[in-house]
Amino acid sequence: MNSAKRILLPQPVEVEAVALLEGAGCEIVTAADPKPETVIPLLPDAEAIILRTGIKITRDLITRAKNLKIIARTGGGVDNVDVAAATEKGVIVTSNVGVNTISVVEHALSLILALSKQLPLMDRSVRTDRFSVRFQNLPRDLRGQTLGLMGFGRIGSTLGESCRQVFGMKVLAYDPFLPDDLKRSVGNGVEFVALETLFSRSDIISIHIPLTEGTRHAVGAKELAMMKPEALLINTSRGPIVDEAALAKALQEKKIGGAGLDVLEQEPPAADSKLLKLDNVILTPHTAALTRECVIRMATEAADCVIDALQGKEPLNIANRDVLKNKRWSELASR
Q1: Is residue 308 exposed (0-12), middle (13-18) or buried (19+ Cβ within 10 Å)?
Q2: Residues 110 and 204 grouped into a single domain
Q3: H/E stretch holding 93
Q4: Are residues 93 and 145 in the same domain?
Q5: Which residues carry out catalysis?
Q6: At what angle are helices 154-167 and 101-116 packed, to 10 degrees?
């Protein structure tokens, strides 16, 4: 780069990503906190934003960033970016599609195993002199169980393959957006079914779909009522996909066996959230992709996207490819 390009970080990123940016001659400005009122004064001179989850880049913020060329997410989703507004303003939006796959799969599998083997209950029982709980035979085997995948992208398909190969589980999938030729290419290991079939036949349902207006509360009272009484619900995707009030009611009334949630409708949850008082749910703080290794991968890939775009090269994983029609990017070197 001939002159320093100003990169705005609403939240700090890993030192490995900072080193990449500094090595490319970038000037890094880190906000004191990710609140809009803190970030707004820093927007006019920013040519790029590396974005985590602490703030939503709205149309108003994009309009204020007169020199902005790229917003690079450090995660797989872009639901905290007004992508339409960015496209209108000629701003590229990228995401880390695929970089967090194995980390999220491992976390989903951890929730499945912890619930199936009743690990929280077993731990509490040993600590409270109820060792005899071992004779109640509460844990369940995964072998022979049916896993239902709501979404069959990178994460869902990898989880399904892992459960099928390691535990001999049957795998059902619901994904109306997956092309038929890709469904056929999966082979006999996965049965693609309607949503109603997925919820009624699965012993474990794991959610792997993006949050859109069409998927908000996609899992509500109707879907939960279809589940088997001992079935488990896992969500490592986005909290608002599940109607939390309906889920809390189903768990409270023991209509389903349990839930493992890495994401919630409100993060962090309100102090009076009913989920916090239930023993048949495991809650983790949106940390599936936040392993030591994965955060470095996400941050460095986002930094690479910024460097590529500002050096006139097409970055990876552009979420709004229509933006390339903007004359600003007419000389962008394609991959």
Answers
A1: buried
A2: yes
A3: strand 92-94
A4: no
A5: 238, 267, 286
A6: 50
Identify the H or E element spanning 261.
Answer: strand 258-261
Tokens 């990228």 correspond to 94
Answer yes or no: are the C-beta atoms of 45 and 6 closer than 8 Å. yes
Q: Which domain holds residue 171?
A: 101-283
Query: If you average pLDDT over residues 279-306, what whole number do you get?
Result: 97
Cα angle for residues 254, 255, 257 (degrees, 5° grid) = 65
Please report which helix (H) or strand (E) contains residue 101, including its range. Answer: helix 101-116
Q: Are residues 249 and 309 in the same domain?
A: no
d(CA 215, CA 210): 7
- 180: domain CATH number? 3.40.50.720
Mean pLDDT of the chain: 96
Q: Is residue 40 part of a domain?
A: yes
- pLDDT at res. 111: 98
In one-letter notation, the amino acid at residue 67 is N
- For the packed helices 292-310 and 15-23, what is the interaxial angle rounded to 10 degrees? 20
Tell me the per-residue pLDDT of 170-201, one tens digit each, with 9 for 90 and over.
999 999 999 999 888 887 899 999 999 999 99
Paired tokens of 300: 């460095």
For residue 164, the one-letter residue type is R
Q: Are residues 258 and 160 in the same domain?
A: yes
Give the residue from 270, 312, 306, 272 showing the smallest Cα distance to 94. 306
Amino acid identity at 46? A
